[in-house]
């Protein structure tokens, strides 16, 4: 089966067959995992939105436009051009920090039938995969000299007991930010993976 896929890639892409390296395989797994998480994030957000009244949706969307996700404090490319200019190491480092910032708050995600109890586990697996990629590019101790990445306490008092509209707003914010950050990580890992293929067009 692998030979068939390789032959097809040669025929349709017009490139010479090259062996898949361990780095390429690890990147492929990481990209696949974050794509799955992004889809789960989209499902959670969509399920929650569908449970709201039209006016509630409008008000929450209006409020969120003026708010910031806690992970915005993690410095990252401001647009697709800066993303494309960023080094593989930088994209991996940012992705690691974003994923780590969601390990704890992901346990509190709600909004529908998506398997919430699996999200934290999938984030942990993705984080481990990105750390392996970081170590393959540079000593992790140089990237995180204190022994760990950025430790954030997302959304301040989100975990306090809140009622009514405030609770609704916080849930909306959490789900919207999770979706936004998983999209970021998917973009960064996809661009970083593309860099391993010199013939590939990495334009976003």
Q: What do you see in this structure?
A:
With 204 residues, the protein is mainly α. It is built from eight helices and no strands. The longest helix is centred in the C-terminal third of the chain and has 31 residues, at 164-194. The chain is elongated, with a radius of gyration of 19 Å. It starts with a helix and ends in a 10-residue tail after the last helix. The model is unreliable at 2-17 and 145-163 (pLDDT under 50).
In terms of topology, how is this protein built?
Elements: H1 2-13, H2 22-50, H3 54-64, H4 80-85, H5 88-100, H6 116-137, H7 140-143, H8 164-194
Helix pairs in contact: 2-6, 2-8, 5-6, 5-8
Question: Rg to the nearest angstrom?
Answer: 19 Å
What portion of residues belong to β-strands?
A: under 5%
- Give the integer mean of the pLDDT values: 76
Structural class, by secondary structure, is mainly alpha
Q: Helicity, in percent? A: 55-70%
Q: What is the end-to-end distance?
A: 30 Å
Shape: elongated
Helical run tally = 8
* Uncertain residue ranges: 2-17, 145-163
Largest sheet: none
Order of helices and strands: HHHHHHHH
Strands, total number:
0
